[in-house]
Amino acid sequence: MDEAALVTLRGGVFSRAEALRAGVSSATVARRLADKVWRAVHPGVYRHAAVAVSDTVMLEAALLWAGPTATLSGIWAAWWHGLRPEPSGPVTVTVPRSSAVRTRPSIVVRRRALSAADVTTVRGVRVISRALAALENARTTDGQDIVDRAVQRHVSVPELAVAMDRFTGAHGATAARRSLALVADGTVSPPERDLARALRRAGLTQIRAGVHVRIGGRRCWLDFAVEELQLAVEVDGVSAHSDPAVFHRDRERQNLLVRAGWTVLRYTPLQLRRDMSRVIAEIRATLATLGG
């Protein structure tokens, strides 16, 4: 690797050690910094001046500065996993208890022994698992949304429970346990929880939340279902269904269900809030029609 190749590392973020290994002399490093061709992000970590400061650049630079045992965690891990729209605050990294690195203005350093099961690599970045990221962020302002989104994106409740066992005793464990309890019945949003409570009150306990079925070789997640009667009940949250790709996939899935003989009922959060009694009456009538 030569000096020109340095700017291709991590989108233009590299360390002094990497520059020296590439054959760049210490004098040249000093000259590049003095001429502002390279900019110091952290001590011994640089970006090329042509590389704009971005969340990804700050993330890569923080991990490079903290060393190879550092793992992206906290809000930044949730963002990297796609569980929240953007990161905020300093980059958070988790390091072994023996690490000598210290918190600095743009990096928060946490010390904790992570299980191998709690560490993964996503798009080349060493990051805590999606399950642990959800639990770590349960105590934040949008914590329940993050946990819900994790379950929506195929983190199973049992997987969260196993991660919770390892997270017990850590900062935020109490909030994580509360969030885990909310998704334990298969619901993944406040409107779904409202409907689940109404179904229980109505005695319609045969309708289960968070049902996975396989139809035509495709695995489908149903908000609520009675599998033996082929009845699906879907709650169309505005935020999730405003995404064109999600909207498209939902219509494909519904067509697949209907072709396979399923009955599909769909409700919006507004319908649930304004007229839950009518929703329950319609579900009950449909069950009766289907022989339930």
Summarize the structure in words.
Helix 6 (130-136) crosses helix 8 (157-167). Helix content is 45%, strand content 21%. Strands 9-10-11-12 form a four-stranded mixed β-sheet, with helices on both faces. It has a three-stranded antiparallel β-sheet with strand order 1-3-2, with helices on both faces. A three-stranded mixed β-sheet has the order 4-5-6. A hairpin with a 4-residue loop joins strand 10 and strand 11 (231-235). The model has no long low-confidence stretch (mean pLDDT 92). It is built from 14 helices and twelve strands. The N and C termini lie far apart (68 Å). By secondary structure, the protein is an alpha+beta fold.
Rg of Cα set: 24 Å
| Overall body shape | elongated
What ranges have pLDDT less than 50 throughout 5 or more consecutive residues? none
What are the secondary-structure elements, in order, as H or E?
HEHHEEHEHEEEEHHHHHEEEHHEHH
Whole-number mean pLDDT:
92
User: Class by helix and strand content?
Assistant: alpha+beta
The rounded distance between the terminal residues' Cα atoms is: 68 Å
The portion of residues forming beta strands comes to 15-25%
Biggest sheet: strands side by side, in what order? 9-10-11-12
Q: Total number of β-strand segments?
A: 12
Report the sheet with the most strands, covering strand number, pairing sense and barrel closure: 4 strands, mixed
Helical proportion, percent range: 40-55%
Helical segment tally? 14
